[in-house]
Amino acid sequence: MSVTRFDPPRRRDPAALIIAAGLAVVAGVMLWDSARLADLGGYSGVGPASVPRVVAFGLLGLSVWTAIEALRGDFPQRPRQAPAPVLWIVAGLSAQMMLLHVAGFSIATGILFAFTARAFGKTNLAMTIPLGIGFAFVVWTIFSQLLMLNLPAGPLEHLIFPGA
Amino acid sequence: MTIIRYIRSALRMFGAAVSVVSDLRVNHLPSERELNRLGIKKADFQAIHLN
Amino acid sequence: MKQFVLAGLFAGAVALPAMADYTIIAPANPGGGWDQTARTMQTVMQEDGISPSVQVQNVPGAGGTIGLAQFASQNSGNDQALIVGGFVMVGAILTNNSPVSLKDVTPIARLTGEYEAVVVPAASPIQDMKGLIEALKVDPGAVSWAGGSAGGTDHIAVGLIAKAAGVDPTKINYIAYSGGGEALAAILGNQVTAGVSSLGEFDAQVKAGTLRLLAVSAPERIAGVEAPTLKESGLDVELQNWRMVAAAPGLNDEQKAKVAADIEKMVKSENWQKQLADKGWSDTYLAGADFEAQLAKDEAATATVLKDIGLVK
Amino acid sequence: MGAFDFLLQGLATAAEPMMLLYALIGVTLGTAVGVLPGIGPALTVALLLPVTYRLDAAGSLIMFAGIYYGGMYGGSTTSILLNTPGESASIITALEGNKMARKGRGGPALATAAIGSFIAGLIATLLLAFLAPWIVKVALVFGPREYFALMVLAFVTVSAAFGDSALRGLTSLFLGLALACVGIDQLTGQARLEFGVPVLLDGIEVTTMAVAMFAVGEALFIAGQRIHIDDELTAVKGSIWMSASDWARSWKPWLRGTFIGFPIGAMPAGGAEIGTFLSYATEKKLSKHPEEFGHGAIEGVAGPEAANNASAAGTLVPLLTLGLPTSATAAIMLAGFQQFGLQPGPLLFATNPTLVWGLIASLLIANFMLLVLNLPLIGLWVKLLTVPKPWLYAGILLFATLGTIGANPSTFELGMLLGFGVLGYGMRLFGYPIAPIVVGLILGPMAEQHLRRALSISQGDWGYLVQSPIAAVLLGIAALALIVPLILRARGKGEMLSQLAGDED
């Protein structure tokens, strides 16, 4: 819910061309997948492959439309974005994903917490990582022990709750 | 006559509201013309921190 | 915080090694039949002291085959892990080409079961099973059947009925819904010719007179239900949508006997019988070699029907 | 039994202590997320879905509805005191509300917003209760073709007609429809687009997708913007209570806002915001003090705030009676019903009246709770605003991933969360609306199944789809809604271009 102030440029937009290509690729994958499905239309005449095909052709059409708008420069200009904070959050999510089953919920999520705070300007990771792990551990305790949610436990959780 | 004018103005207002909202949904600043139709000054609108 | 730690340690210390802490996998979303079965087992086993602590874990998806695959691969030799399953799983394994089948786990016992019911809207000109079969013979496409998901018990029932009536099962016009409840809307709204689902799904509407019950798939008449069996209607079809419990693969005989004994203790308890009565489930407990024989029979029959319907090649 | 008896029965259910507790949790959480910028009710409900696995259905749904109502209340606080809307439906409140606060009339502004929300919530919930049985009666004859037509209408209105660019709206919708194709086809049991990944057999989790789009995508976008405006809190000075003239100037806008907001919320893809803008414009037109607008006119707070709460209740009409979500929050609530194996729609009123009427009645109770929570406790809510952004977003992402992990602790699911989060970020960056992709994912499979069922019943005769008058009318409206804006846009192009040339910015 944020608003960008833009003035309409009139030039080719390579990024929009990439979007058009991406849409075409998705359509291609859907067509390829639907080709291997058995036609079990039965009495309706519309089988499991029909709707994916229709959606794929729709996407192809939208891809062409996007390409035309891109070439005519009708695409809206994008707000200026700083790449570093975005990458910090992506890195945090990736770290959590890879560490989750190795290090357990608290450590993995604590790193995500610290990296996100880093993206928003809290740069001192030596302080935010322990803080994040502590907070994530409290959350883990509440949700896994009280609300019986199935959250992966790691060394930290096993240390304090040997039964987990 | 007045009824027709009333309906037309209501419809125009509705159209403007739809257009402003759809602009906001895709993170665009609505156009001055649409905002004026709703009785909103663009400067006032821009003063709101939309984030 | 401290109290939690202490409580955790305490709970760990008092757990007696002789009693198993079971984890039951319900391979479906919360609220469904398998989930309810697992949670009823949890209640009874804990309350009757069969197991001090029982956990239920939902692993939904693909007719239970996702939960089954996860269960079989992660728990080999673990005699504290159980999974709930049922007849729907037999079909789902075949239609989904699941790499894991019931042969990869250790089936322990059949617990409960429900029979299928064939209904038509009260306004339908069809009065009995004979009328429905005649319409089916004239034009199979014109008779639309609403029921649960494709390849499930309801679909198999329709396939078996068509086959028994001498109609090509590939020609049936079966309309799948995500469950009997959703199919009910279509039947009540006169959108389809007939409906097939578990008797329990239609019970209230049959009693209210908005649906006409044509037949049930039980071997003999069910007490309190005024409808003939399919067999009485001249169709040699008998089908039960059963639910079972299985243990992990790779158990030795001793472990298997221990799990089977715990389950038997649960089923024989008053608490279990009371829970079944509350939920309207019938006790169709069957264990050991008898259950294995029944399972093999059901698997073979299902495979044939699914091939006949055209869902499995 | 009439609606009134059902409502009384529902009140008995909703007044059970546990249900009251759920409602209280819901409205408290809802107000909190309404106050905090960056998290809306849709995201909150999506985050809570996995946590409520173990709770009972009625209690969880009552909690979700409380969050929805609470979110609509809470959004006004930040608009008035910070000039920062907590929710898109309270943007317009900032216009007059913040001006009032700067003049030291923050108290009356907050009061008229809270009382207006209460009155609108009360009337609109009663309207919901009395309208629902009628719509249910009509909807009971709905078959697959009528539902199919209804969904086509929702697709069109959510993506094409209301989008700034039909291209981007439709692209978002079709991406949602493409994702909806993933998984086992329910009508034949065949696996589609699953690429050998067993988790995908059951399709893409709506909650994963929604959390990724709303939480991860939003956090990435805000982080990338880097312009973090220092929010300036306007202290509430002077009397908190409304003066006699404030009351006199507020009551009509409250009522008008209610009757503008309710039907717009009930329209497919209407959304709460449209009602708030319309209410503002109406109040300005009808006001005896039009010159005060733009300088803190109380009508400009009272009307829109009533409209946004009324539209929340309006949204529940199609959701409960037809199973049709018309906003992102409603779409997530639909996923909540489905989690408990319930399908909202006419049949739910017949098979589970206790739950439906308990839910409706609990909305009335929630409304009273909100009034109590909001008037005296404003100071407490304002404190929430002092949470610095780094901790706020770090917390949001922590809970976003907690929800996903709780539902399914798999690396793959987290990978999807990240992937869809980046997609959501890209969509925001390029001006693609988010709602169509979510609606496409949720309604896509339903639309496909209804279409194929309808064609199965008619044995392949496409004409059957339009032979029912209801279905034909719905499809006709959908076609108009798709084509008319395109024509208008094409015709208006020349005019627009000359406008652009003349625009100073």
What's the pLDDT, averaged over the residues of chain D?
82
Q: If you compute it from the alpha carbons, what radius of gyration of chain D comes out, rounded to the nearest whole angstrom?
A: 23 Å
CATH topology of the largest domain in chain C: D-Maltodextrin-Binding Protein, domain 2
What low-confidence regions of chain D span 5 or more consecutive residues with pLDDT below 50? 493-505
Task: Describe the fold and architecture.
The complex is a heterotetramer of chains A (164), B (51), C (313) and D (505). Chain A is mostly helical. Chain A contains 5 helices and no strands. Mean pLDDT of chain A is 84; it is low at 4-9. Chain B is an all-alpha fold. Chain B has helices at residues 2-25, 32-37, 42-47. The longest helix of chain B has 24 residues, at 2-25. Chain C has 2 domains: 21-113 and 240-309, D-Maltodextrin-Binding Protein, domain 2 (3-Layer(aba) Sandwich), CATH 3.40.190; 115-216, 3-Layer(aba) Sandwich (D-Maltodextrin-Binding Protein, domain 2), CATH 3.40.190. In chain C, strands 1, 2, 3, 4, 5, 6, 7, 8, 9 and 10 form a 10-stranded mixed sheet that branches. In chain C, helix 4 (87-95) crosses helix 11. The longest helix of chain C has 22 residues, at 288-309. Chain C is globular, with a radius of gyration of 21 Å. The model of chain C is unreliable at 1-18 (pLDDT under 50). Chain D is mainly alpha-helical. Chain D has one domain. Chain D is built from 19 helices and 2 strands. In chain D, a hairpin with a 6-residue loop joins strand 1 (183-184) and strand 2. In chain D, helix 9 crosses helix 10 (272-286) and helix 9 packs parallel to helix 11 (299-322). The chains are: A mainly alpha (164), B mainly alpha (51), C alpha/beta (313), D mainly alpha (505). Chains in contact: A-B, A-C, A-D, B-D, C-D. The interface between C and D is medium-sized, with 37 and 33 residues. Chain B: This is DUF1127 domain-containing protein. Chain C: Residues 1-20 form the signal peptide. Chain C: Keywords: Signal. Chain C: It holds the Pfam family TctC. Chain C: InterPro entries: BUG, Bug_dom1.
Give a brief rundown of this model.
The complex is a heterotetramer of chains A (164), B (51), C (313) and D (505). With 51 residues, chain B is mainly α.
Secondary-structure blueprint:
The complex is a heterotetramer of chains A (164), B (51), C (313) and D (505).
Chain A: H1 14-35, H2 50-72, H3 83-119, H4 125-146, H5 155-160
Helix pairs in contact in A: 1-2, 3-4
Chain C: H1 2-14, E1 23-26, H2 33-47, E2 55-58, H3 65-74, E3 81-86, H4 87-95, E4 106-121, H5 129-138, E5 144-147, H6 153-164, E6 173-176, H7 180-188, E7 194-198, H8 199-208, E8 211-216, E9 240-247, H9 253-268, H10 270-279, E10 282-287, H11 288-309
Parallel strand pairs in C: 1-2, 1-3, 5-6, 5-7
Antiparallel strand pairs in C: 3-9, 4-7, 4-8, 4-9, 4-10
Helix pairs in contact in C: 4-11
Chain D: H1 3-14, H2 17-35, H3 41-48, H4 57-82, H5 91-139, H6 144-161, H7 166-180, E1 183-184, E2 191-192, H8 206-225, H9 244-266, H10 272-286, H11 299-322, H12 328-339, H13 346-351, H14 353-374, H15 378-384, H16 389-407, H17 411-429, H18 435-457, H19 469-502
Antiparallel strand pairs in D: 1-2
Helix pairs in contact in D: 1-14, 2-4, 2-14, 3-4, 3-8, 3-12, 4-5, 4-11, 4-12, 4-14, 5-9, 5-11, 5-14, 6-7, 6-18, 6-19, 7-18, 8-16, 8-17, 9-10, 9-11, 10-11
Protein name (chain B): DUF1127 domain-containing protein
Organism (chain B): Paracoccus lutimaris
InterPro entries (chain C): BUG (IPR005064), Bug_dom1 (IPR042100)
